[in-house]
Design goal:
With about 325 residues, the protein is of the alpha/beta class. Helix content is about 35%, strand content about 15%. Helix 3 packs across helix 4, helix 4 packs antiparallel against helix 5 and helix 4 packs parallel to helix 6. Its main location: membrane.
Length: about 325
């Protein structure tokens, strides 16, 4: 299920039961941020909005291990079809290439061998975010931990599956806490992108089962945490942020990703290439190529015509300078 938690007034999400394919979610995020896509998104859930009004941030949270969450305070909800794995790497590249001089915040979180990792270019303030389970275990014992904000009930801080779920909740809390301390990040001229994938519920269902009290308690906690997370992000960006939640029991094609640090490489233009190579093709290449090509052809033809006319010009008849000179000579 795709649930739109928060959206600015100028983003028109229509309420209905129109299904959306999971592979089209990156296109949906790109359109909400004002970017163009390769293929038109023929989906009636999102209507065209003002051309010069775009959200300051887009936050997409993917929750694995559950079909839907109880999120009553949402803008709209749509069924999800063809639940294949997807990433927002293409949208992140658009943000980087378009707003490179402003250093936008592009923060991606996904499970890996270390359970959590950060990917993409982000501001240095996010270096404080915990990445590995060891770091998060230490973070949960510090001041400001989420363990004191809600009752754990059947969850245990010592079990690994429970710790994974609590660590993801802690990361959501730390993201909003960092933005509250560094509000200038939400007020710059570049849009920010957050892509957060949570697999704690999936691990709890695998370990305890979906009928277990641990899974039920975690589902209730995550629903309330996501509701508050969406409200906080929406408020921090001045009511100009789109927050979506995608809930899926399991992806049909698991996506494997190589883990790396949040700020490991700040200048890589192609995250899929270890040699820092540029992308071989961009969908805007054809447009730019045609503009340059035909402009060069027009300029070359103009130079040829001008040169031909100058070469065949009769100074006595075609030039006003020689014409005036001939008249003066005749008068003398």
């Amino acid at each position: 299920v795709l649930t739109v938690l928060q959206a600015p007034e100028f983003l028109s999400f229509q309420k209905g039961d129109w299904p959306l394919s999971a592979e089209k979610i990156p296109d949906l995020v790109a359109l909400t941020m004002g970017f163009s896509v390769e293929e038109d998104l023929s989906w009636p859930g999102l209507q065209a909005g003002p051309l010069f009004q775009r959200p300051r941030a887009n936050v997409l949270v993917v929750v694995r291990g559950v079909d839907s969450l109880d999120l009553p305070q949402s803008v709209a909800s749509y069924p999800l079809e063809n639940p294949v794995a997807f990433t927002l790497d293409s949208v992140a590249e658009m943000v980087h290439s378009t707003f490179a001089e402003y250093t936008p915040v592009v923060l991606q979180l996904a499970p890996s061998e270390e359970r959590l990792y950060m990917l993409g270019k982000a501001n240095a303030v996010f270096e404080d975010l915990p990445v590995t389970l060891q770091q998060i275990r230490a973070r949960l014992s510090q001041d400001g931990s989420v363990l004191t904000s809600f009752p754990l009930n059947s969850l245990s801080r010592n079990a690994e599956a429970d710790l994974l779920f609590l660590s993801e909740v802690q990361v959501l809390h730390d993201i909003t806490a960092l933005l509250q301390r560094h509000r200038h990040l939400a007020k710059d001229n570049s849009p920010d992108l957050y892509s957060l994938e949570l697999s704690g519920l999936e691990e709890l269902s695998r370990v305890y089962g979906k009928d277990s009290p641990q899974y039920r308690d975690a589902t209730s906690i995550l629903a309330s945490v996501l509701q508050k997370f969406g409200e906080d992000m929406y408020r921090l960006y001045g009511n100009s942020a789109a927050v979506e939640v995608v809930t899926v029991k399991t992806f049909e094609a698991p996506l494997t990703r190589k883990s790396r640090s949040i700020l490991e490489s700040k200048q890589i233009s192609n995250p899929g290439s270890p040699y820092n190579l540029a992308y071989k093709y961009n969908f805007e290449y054809a447009v730019i190529f045609n503009i340059v090509l035909w402009m060069m052809i027009v300029l070359v033809l103009a130079v040829i015509v001008i040169a031909y006319n100058l070469w065949n010009m009769d100074p006595g008849y075609d030039s006003i300078i020689y014409r005036m000179t001939n008249q003066k000579i005749r008068m003398d």
